[in-house]
Specification:
The structure holds 2 protein chains of 2 kinds. By secondary structure, chain A is an alpha+beta fold. Chain A folds into 4 domains: about 120 residues, Sandwich (Immunoglobulin-like), CATH 2.60.40; about 130 residues, Immunoglobulin-like, CATH 2.60.40; about 120 residues, Immunoglobulin-like (Sandwich); about 120 residues, Up-down Bundle (Four Helix Bundle (Hemerythrin (Met), subunit A)), CATH 1.20.120. In chain A, about 25% of the residues lie in helices and about 40% in strands. In chain B, the strands form 2 sheets. Chain B has a 5-stranded antiparallel β-sheet. In chain B, strands 2-3 form a two-stranded antiparallel sheet. The chains are: A alpha+beta, B alpha+beta. At the A-B interface, strand 23 and helix 3 of A face helix 1, helix 3, helix 4, helix 5 and helix 7 of B.
């Protein structure tokens, strides 16, 4: 019961607090020590779940600080705790204060009002010293403040564009620097160039162009401005007389209107125009050498040769480099007269221009590509460079070269259709292609393609097969000569046929015929069975033949044939026909046995 | 029965002889037109002769001359290069190629005089090596390889078969020819692996643009005179990827170049 009462009491307490709206104020300053040229930022945070009747804080009256502006931001946090949604609103103010004097200054308490209640920030002690302590507090374009409340009538006095030159008079070709600076006491938005500066009668080189607006505080006639350099150009007058640098023009919106809370919400579109500047351009003194081409400043020059080989029909380069300070951009490629037998292939120009410390200087490099057509000794021409030296007040001429070179005979120097002799040098005066090939009776057929490496592989394959056969042949030959049994076995059939061919011419001598035929058959069997040839008897080898799977029918045939041969030897009458038949049957039988052996 | 196999061969030889006669006639007509100063007709006749299937250096040489007289330096160099491929040591061909190069000088026409496209192999060992290989045609290399291998094989077979003092002689002769075979095979490999041998192409359009990629608005690298040598290493759509003598690569429309050895 007690716990329940306590829970109810706590809930009522929280509900009451929520109903009345708890809120808090915290504050801080950017630094305890700043310079007189710096700004101090006071950050104030007002937080609560409900902030009724809250107003933007304002700086109480003080002689020590000038109010230079304020930035406001709002954030809202939502939290879900115990199934309940809670909300907290936070207003953050960054008040920018400018110190009015040096010494120990006090930032007074700043009253904050909300929910019918007023709370104060604490007061802060700040030491203000001479100059600037840190660039951090320099105003940015976003926070660019107005030093005072807007006055619609004098906007143009508070925002202006200044064009300044480092010289009001100059000599033709002498460098002048023109700088465009924007001064403003308002915060500006939507800045754009409506007219770029015009430098008619000048050669202009851009030295600087602002990519972002980084304002610096400047004081002019006791007025504090935010100033930014928009651009800077180096100008070189091209001719004498009174010259005018036409102005640059900008359009911008000056944020001059404030809303109920004092924030800038709107402004006035304005045109900002710099005043034209007159420059008195003096002429260069008379008596300029013929090699003078308008160069003013201080320069040096070198020439060099760039070549792998100096030979006819081989290109090489003659390089002239000019360096110095002044209107080097106006420099033109020196005109050089090369020997007539040199073919010229134009000039390659390269430049490296520096604008360090707003002074234009650099190097220009001219590469003359040449192809000599004749061999011999030649001289590359001297190069003269004349400029007006402003410090000395006179014209100065510097020279490079001449360079002597020897051109050797190149790849085409042989042959020629004609020549003239001059000072010991031989020049070709005509050259042409070789004449066409004469008429043909036949032409080679084919196609214009790269040869197929496959034909090489086919040949190699054929050679491999050939060598394999040769090696097999050699092995067989070696075996036949070293293994008698193998030789007899291999040659048995061949020798038997040879004997039978001998027998076919012995029909007239029956004794010899029978002996030869019997020998052919029995010697064949002996060779096949690796038995001695001499004294071989069929009865002895019949079993050996049976072991070699010669069938009984064949064995009987052999036996029968041998008996017939014995019989015919002693039979009367004409025997040639019978002999031929026996010979044929013997041959067939040997072939049959040979198949069985295989 | 046998005639059935023989007749097609006879027909092929007969047609080939007729075609060759036609090519010879066209070639000689081309020469006549050239001598009369009618270079366009000469070009037509030489091209027609090539279309009949001849690969004779004289046709390409004379065609190159006709193009040169017709102020088409790129195509002149292209056909002289083809003639050189077929007859690499022919003096007339080499002279004309050198002469054409004098008129070209390998200068790039970028704005007012661009840089010379230097040869990365110039005055290097590889440069001299490839120049040596250029003195022989790929067909000569191939024939030498085949001849050396056949000779080496015959002597190897003799070494296997014969006995006596000749056997040793046969072995050393075979070994010598196998060495020559290996050496020439390696050289042939280098020659066939050199893109300036197999993929060489000639710029045939004046003011040919070499770009960084195969589309029109890519970065322009060079503008070439006709007659410049490049190596066409890849074809993609209507663009060819090419390599320059200075080692750089670029892309150009395939119509701007023509390969010395057509694919």
């Amino acid at each position: 019961m007690v716990k329940l009462i306590l829970k109810i009491s706590l809930f009522l307490l929280l509900a009451t607090a929520a109903l009345y709206g708890e809120w808090s104020v915290t504050s801080d300053i950017s630094s305890n020590r700043i310079g007189i040229d710096d700004n101090l930022t006071v950050t104030i945070k007002v937080s609560g779940d409900k902030l009724d009747n809250h107003q933007q804080p304002s700086l109480p009256n003080t002689d020590d600080w000038a109010f230079a502006g304020v930035n406001r931001s709002t954030s809202t946090n939502f939290q879900l705790i115990g199934g309940r949604m809670s909300k907290e609103i936070t207003y953050t103010y960054q008040m920018i204060l400018a110190p009015t004097r040096k010494g120990d200054l006090t930032v007074p308490k700043i009253p904050i009002s909300a929910n019918g209640e007023t709370k104060n920030t604490p007061s802060y002690q700040v030491e203000v010293v001479e100059g600037s302590v840190s660039g951090r507090n320099a105003p940015s374009p976003r926070s660019s403040p107005t030093p005072s409340q807007p006055d619609e009538g004098d906007i143009r006095d508070r925002v202006f564009l200044s064009a300044t030159t480092n010289k009001k008079s100059a000599t033709v070709g002498e460098q002048i620097v023109v700088t465009y600076t924007l001064y403003t006491q308002y915060q500006l938005a939507n800045i754009s160039f409506s007219r770029e500066p015009s430098f008619k009668g000048f050669w202009a080189d851009n030295l600087y162009r602002a990519k972002s607006l980084n304002y610096q505080r400047r004081t002019i006639d006791g007025q504090v401005y935010n100033a930014v350099v928009l651009g800077k150009w180096a100008l070189f007058p091209l001719s004498p007389g009174d010259k005018t640098i036409e102005p640059m023009e900008l359009t911008a919106t000056a944020l001059t209107q404030r809303d109920f809370f004092g924030f800038r919400t709107g402004g006035q579109n304005i045109e900002i125009k710099a005043r034209p500047i007159s420059i008195d351009v003096k002429p260069l003194p008379s008596g300029a050498p013929s090699s003078f081409d308008g160069l003013v400043g201080d320069f040096s020059m070198v020439s060099e040769l760039k070549a792998d080989t100096l030979a006819t029909n081989e290109a090489f380069s003659y390089i002239v480099s000019i360096s110095g300070t002044g209107n080097i951009q106006n420099l033109n490629a020196p005109k050089l007269n090369f020997p007539s037998s040199f073919e010229e292939y134009g000039v390659q120009e390269g430049s490296n221009i520096n604008t360090d410390r707003d002074i234009v200087s650099g190097t220009k490099r001219y590469e003359y590509v040449l192809v000599p057509r004749s061999p011999g000794e030649f001289e590359l021409p001297k190069v003269d460079l004349t400029y007006f030296d402003l410090n000395a007040g006179k014209y100065v001429t510097k020279s490079a070269g001449p360079i002597s070179i020897r051109i050797a005979k190149g790849r085409d120097s042989a042959g020629g259709t004609g020549s003239i002799v001059s000072r010991g040098e031989v020049f070709r005066v005509g050259q042409d292609i070789r004449h066409i090939a004469s008429d043909a009776k036949s032409l080679r057929r084919g196609t214009l393609t790269k040869p197929n490496g496959g034909s090489i592989i086919y040949f190699l394959l054929g050679e491999f097969i050939f060598l394999t056969v040769i090696m097999g042949f050699r092995r067989r030959k070696e075996k036949l000569s070293s293994d008698i049994g193998y030789a007899r076995y291999t040659k048995a059939l061949k020798r038997a046929f040879k004997d039978l061919r001998t027998a076919s011419s012995q029909f007239g001598d029956m004794e010899a015929f029978v002996a030869t035929v019997q020998g052919a058959l029995l010697h064949y069997l002996a060779d096949r069975l690796s038995l001695p040839r001499e004294g071989v008897v069929f009865a002895e080898i019949r079993d050996r033949l049976a072991e070699r799977k010669i069938d009984d029918e064949t064995l009987d045939s052999i036996e029968g044939l041998l008996e017939e041969l014995n019989f015919i030897r002693f039979a009367p009458g004409e025997k040639e026909e019978v002999s031929k038949d026996l010979l044929k049957r013997t041959k067939d039988l040997i072939v049959k046995i040979d198949r069985a052996f295989k | 029965m046998k005639m059935r196999y023989i007749i097609p061969f006879i027909a092929i030889f007969a047609l080939s002889a007729l075609a060759s006669d036609g090519a010879v006639s066209l070639y000689n007509q081309g020469n006549s037109a050239y001598r009369e100063g009618d270079f366009e007709t000469a070009i037509e006749n030489y091209l027609a002769a090539i279309d009949t299937g001849v690969a004779d250096y004289r046709v390409y040489f004379n065609l190159g001359n006709a193009y040169f007289r017709n102020n088409q330096v790129g195509r002149a160099i292209l056909n002289w290069e083809r003639a050189r491929y077929l007859k690499p040591r022919n003096e007339d061909v080499l002279e004309n190629i050198d002469f054409a190069r004098l008129t070209r000088v390998d200068i790039v026409l970028e704005s007012e005089g661009g840089p010379k496209v230097a040869d990365v192999y110039e005055n290097t060992f590889l440069g001299y090596f490839y120049a040596f290989l250029d003195k022989f045609s790929a067909v000569e290399f191939r024939n030498a390889i085949i001849a050396f291998s056949i000779t080496a094989t015959i002597f190897l077979a003799l070494w296997l078969l014969v006995r006596g003092g000749f056997r040793r002689f046969a072995f050393w002769i075979s070994a010598a020819f196998w060495t020559l075979f290996t050496l020439v095979l390696i050289l042939y490999g280098f020659k066939q692996g050199n893109i300036w041998e197999t993929d060489k192409a000639i710029v045939v359009q004046p003011g040919t643009e070499i770009r960084s990629a195969s589309y029109t608005n890519s970065q322009l690298l060079y503008t070439f005179q006709e007659g410049m040598e490049v190596a066409a290493i890849e074809v993609r759509d209507n663009y060819s990827r090419i390599k320059l003598r200075n080692g750089e690569e670029g892309w150009t429309l395939s119509d701007n170049i023509e390969r010395v050895l057509p694919r």
